[in-house]
Amino acid sequence: MIEVSQITKKYGRKRVLDEATFTADKGQITCLVGINGVGKSTILKAIMGLTTISSGQILIDGQRLEPKLYEKIVFIPDTITMPPNMKIGDAMLFMNDFYPNWNVKRAFELLSFFKLKVQDRIGDLSKGNAAKMNLLLGLALDADYLLMDEPFSGIDIFSREQIANVFTTHLIEDRGVIITTHEIQDIEHLIDKVVLLDQGRVLKEFSAEEVRMKEGKSVVDVMREVYQA
Ligand SMILES: Nc1ncnc2c1ncn2[C@@H]1O[C@H](COP(=O)(O)OP(=O)(O)OP(=O)(O)O)[C@@H](O)[C@H]1O
């Protein structure tokens, strides 16, 4: 389990996270939701140790983040981190050389799932295929937790569907996923838990299935209630 407890983050005098608290379980998809600038990406970066926090605590399976835990978590950013001249196959070889937890079998399964080709140059990929390649590079690593920042951002409906479909396959397995997205309707049916954020604070944390079953509401219905109240 990832436990985020009362984390606060300031940039200068600006407080961008304000005692944010939530948990994300293994085997579940937890979605961080909120309008632009509420602090979703900052939370993911804080979990990864890519940004410092002013106070609070983050535990991964009961432990504070330290180098030996890095293999447990993967951060999949919304931008390509590989050089544009590289081919997809070269990027896969690079990952294989540098990451002991690179899973070659899963990498090729993802390549075929996303209909990508090893000979394609990264700089020539469409936005949708670039997002898929980013996911391939992250999901092929054997890690217990996957943090995904806006995997659907700026891509067409068919690519969004294909990306959403990966969540229903064994390629995600029983790993814990924390995802940020503005395209909630694309994955609403797949999400286990929703964390609603506003100005760096957690307004509400709820089980998507429970509000569906008990209250007959969709995640978007709850968002409307909370944000338009
Ligand atoms: N390096 C930085 N220096 C100063 N302020 C920053 C920095 N990075 C982020 N911020 C501010 O922190 C706040 C939270 O940013 P963050 O990127 O976490 O929001 P977000 O919810 O992910 O937004 P979006 O939905 O637009 O991606 C914003 O007001 C942003 O301007």
CA-atom Rg in angstroms: 18 Å
The portion of residues assigned to helices is: 25-40%
DSSP summary, beta strand count: 10
| CATH class membership | Alpha Beta
Bound molecules: adenosine-5'-triphosphate
Could you name the CATH homologous superfamily?
Answer: P-loop containing nucleotide triphosphate hydrolases
CATH topology call: Rossmann fold
Shape: globular
CATH architecture classification name: 3-Layer(aba) Sandwich
Strand content: 25-35%
Number of helices: 8
Q: Which residue ranges are poorly predicted, with pLDDT under 50 across at least 5 consecutive positions?
A: none
Terminus-to-terminus distance: 32 Å
**Which structural category fits the helices and strands?**
alpha/beta
Biggest sheet, strands in spatial order? 6-7-8-3-9-10
The SSE order reads: EEEHEEEHHHEHEHEEHH
Average per-residue pLDDT, rounded, comes to: 92
Protein name: ABC transporter ATP-binding protein
Domain ABC transporter: 2-224
InterPro entries: AAA+_ATPase, ABC_transporter-like_ATP-bd, ABC_transporter-like_CS, ABC_Transporter_VariousFunc, P-loop_NTPase
Organism: Paenibacillus hexagrammi
